[in-house]
Write a structure and sequence with these properties.
The chain is 36% helix and 14% strand. It has helices at residues 11-28, 71-85, 100-110, 126-129, 147-154, 168-173; strands at 40-42, 47-48, 115-119, 131-135, 141-145, 157-161. The strands form two sheets. It has a four-stranded mixed beta sheet with strand order 2-1-3-6, sandwiched between helices. Strands 4-5 form a two-stranded antiparallel ribbon. Strand 1 and strand 2 (47-48) form a beta hairpin. Helix 1 (11-28) packs parallel to helix 2 (71-85). The two termini are 32 Å apart.
């Protein structure tokens, strides 16, 4: 697949390229990767509306046509999208409020792919991330999936905010 370097494109051409790449990515997803009706999952079962908060590209609609693209954000999102299409694991690091999580949520929304978002902390355990066996009310042993396993099984985009706060021994297990 031949790609044009985004630097060589005008903002309008870059936008069209991004739109086409999102469609290709959406088509490549299996039906099990489809967004859950609940929206974006946050740790401990919390669910929020699937509209990415603080996203400067969004004007409030559900469709790509309703978004107001900012050229630098489209360029950034295009790089993330290419990595997702290659099934790469992506680590975005940088100062706060640089659209790291928002871009991933935005791509998930445009591609109709579910997103699991968690925030790391010093108390996070391997069972929080992978899962653990728990006793149900009727005294049956049941495996409860952790955030990482849930994202893997469902083909979701996993966002781990503040991963540097998760103890190193836990991150090494991943």
């Amino acid at each position: 697949e031949e790609r044009v370097a985004p630097e060589a494109l005008s903002p309008e051409e870059e936008l069209k390229l991004f739109e086409a790449e999102v469609e290709k990515y959406r088509a490549s997803l299996s039906p099990s990767d489809a967004r859950s009706p609940e929206g974006i999952r946050r740790g401990e079962g919390e669910v929020e509306d699937s509209t990415p908060p603080g996203l400067p590209l969004q004007r409030g609609g559900e469709n790509w046509e309703d978004l107001v693209p900012v050229p630098t954000a489209v360029k950034y999102a295009l790089k993330v999208l290419y990595s997702l299409k290659r099934s790469d694991h992506i680590l975005l690091e940088g100062p706060p409020a640089r659209m790291k999580s928002a871009v991933a949520k935005w791509i998930g929304k445009l591609a109709n792919q579910s997103v699991v978002e968690i925030t790391g902390d010093r108390k996070m355990s391997a069972s929080d991330l992978i899962g653990q066996h728990m006793m149900t009310e009727d005294q049956q042993l049941e495996f409860i999936k952790g955030h990482v396993l849930e994202a893997m099984v469902n083909g979701s985009i996993l966002i781990v905010n503040e991963a540097n706060l998760i103890p190193a021994a836990i991150l090494e297990r991943l």
